Amino acid sequence: MSNDNVLTFHGHVGTPVAIREGSAVPWVLFRVASTPSHWDQASRSWRELPTTWLSIKAFRQLAQNAAESLKVGDPVVVIGRLRTETWTTKEGEARESTVVEATLIAHDLGRGVTAFRKVDRQAAAAPGSDGTAEALAELEGQTSAA
Fold first, then answer.
1. Which of 5, 46, 57, 84 is the most buried (most CB within 10 A)?
2. Closest CA to 56 of 13, 102, 24
3. Residue 68, SS3?
4. Reduced to 3 states, what is the DSSP secondary structure of residue 9?
5. If 0-12 CB within 10 Å is exposed, 13-18 middle and 19+ buried, where does residue 69 land?
6. What pLDDT is stored for residue 75 in this prediction?
7. Among candidates 117, 77, 118, which has minimal Cα distance to 100?
8. Which of 123, 137, 52 is nearest to 95 (CA)?
9. Beta pairing partners, 84
10. Based on the number of CB atoms within 10 Å of its own CB, is 124 exposed (0-12), middle (13-18) or buried (19 or more)?
């Protein structure tokens, strides 16, 4: 039995999904926003709840396919494991961020249609230290006002 925290999350892509290279392994790091709503019986209207933002990280073929397939605003479903990334800024400050290490990323077909195109698989090495700290700091700057 595994002690991993597996999460299923759906929302909209909130930042560009750009392929990055680190330790010879392609990877992506992007943000997904989810704004739940509920029916308010008293006002007879839908009410939006606060938006939840999550950082999503993927490696290898999943990263390459995500970078080629996803655009800002796309509705997605992500399944992955919760991880805590820690790093130190250039100023020496300790930082920490919760990241979903994705095992599955898909368009949310309840919100639209997409076309599937199979790609050739490529062998890849295990992930290593690859610049995640810089990417997380960049993402925090892009969504801090949200």
1. 57
2. 102
3. helix
4. strand
5. middle
6. 97
7. 77
8. 137
9. 98
10. middle
Place of tokens 């992930």: 127
Q: Percent of the chain beyond pLDDT 90? A: 63
Q: Which residue has the tokens 């599937």?
A: 116
Two tokens, residue 30: 């992007």
CB 35 within 8 A of CB 145: no
**107: DSSP letter:** E
pLDDT for 128 beyond 60: no
Dihedral sign, Cα of residue 141, residue 144, residue 83, residue 72: negative
Q: Are 99 and 56 in contact (CB under 8 A)?
A: yes
Q: Give the rounded distance of the alpha carbon of 73 from its chain centre.
A: 13
**Residue 142 has what pLDDT?**
60
> How is residue 44 written in tokens?
């007879």
Cα distance between residue 38 and residue 129, in whole Å? 41
CA–CA separation, 100 and 55 (whole Å): 6
